[in-house]
Write a structure and sequence with these properties.
Blueprint lengths: L4 H8 L4 E5 L3 H9 L4 E4 L3 H4 L11 H14 L4 E5 L9 H14 L3 E3 L7 H9 L4 E6 L5 H4 L9 H17 L3 E5 L3 H10 L4 E4 L7 E4 L1 H4 L17 H17 L12
Parallel strand pairs: 1-2, 1-8, 2-3, 3-4, 4-5, 5-6, 6-7, 7-8
Helix pairs in contact: 2-4, 4-5, 5-6, 8-9
Length: about 260
């Protein structure tokens, strides 16, 4: 996808939207070559790349740098960048400045979590010409308030609150939503009633598309195995084996070989 208009077109045609995260130019280039529709520079970069325990540690400087790298690797794809923790809770001017910095770094659109308390910010960003993707259900920036990383919308009241927020976000002008860790039936109902696509992660198969963290689908962390992730490669095993072979070759004086020596 080269524009956010293609999200609506895909939704109308019932063509599933394929998204993955990317944090650097190399993996963004691979995503583009693989035909991924759009890449998300998630604030999960704080955990996946920088080793922090949660996404709340992502900073604007971090998000801008990784957004710029991803754009260089995928110059023609839709790139959505997360607004980091509290960036959209400091008022409209601060939110516009943060979103503007991400767009200037290469983002096509920004993503923000939740609706309550910043409806005016969402409308103002959209009115300022900055495409906005919403994020409901498990919102990792609110992990402390939610009591951990757990399924959201189990009770009837919780489910209705998420549906109401989804309708409100669409009315405010978001071009798409991420629904994270909600019951499949709830995600299906929201997807069916919204005029914009709902992209699922841990939200069942009946959403308008799927998004996964790239290191999860590549199997790069053998200790992280969420139920909703399918591993498409044993990335950890491949990397470990390659590094061990390299170490053995160097210690045995098998690398570099004659053909690898510059004359």
């Amino acid at each position: 996808m080269k524009s956010i208009l293609e999200f609506s077109a895909a939704h109308a045609a019932r063509r599933p939207i394929v998204m993955t995260t990317a944090y650097d130019a190399l993996l963004a280039r691979h995503a583009a070559r693989a035909g991924i529709d759009a890449v998300l520079v998630g604030d999960s970069v704080a955990m996946v790349v920088h080793g922090f325990p949660s996404t709340v540690h992502a900073t604007m400087e971090m998000m801008v740098a990784h957004t710029a790298a991803v754009r260089r690797g995928a110059p023609d794809l839709v790139v959505v960048a997360d607004l980091p923790f509290l960036a959209h809770r400091r008022g409209r001017e601060a939110a516009v400045a943060a979103a503007g910095a991400l767009v200037q770094a290469g983002a096509t659109a920004v993503k923000l979590e939740g609706v309550a308390g910043h409806e005016d910010v969402i409308a103002h960003l959209v009115g300022s010409g900055i495409p906005v993707m919403g994020h409901l259900g498990l919102t990792p920036q609110s992990v402390h308030q939610l009591g951990g990383y757990r399924l959201q919308g189990r009770s009837a009241d919780e489910a209705e609150a998420i549906r109401a927020d989804a309708r409100r976000a669409a009315a405010l002008g978001v071009f798409a939503l991420v629904l994270e860790c909600v019951p499949a039936a709830l995600a299906a109902a929201i997807t069916a009633e919204l005029p914009v696509p709902a992209i699922g992660i841990g939200a069942g198969a009946e959403t308008a598309g799927q998004v996964l963290v790239i290191s999860d689908l590549l199997g790069l962390d053998p200790d992280f195995r969420p139920r909703f992730v399918r591993r498409y490669a044993d990335g950890a095993g491949v990397v470990q084996e390659a590094l061990e072979r390299y170490a053995r070759d160097v210690r045995a004086a098998h690398f570099p070989a004659a053909a690898e020596v510059l004359a």
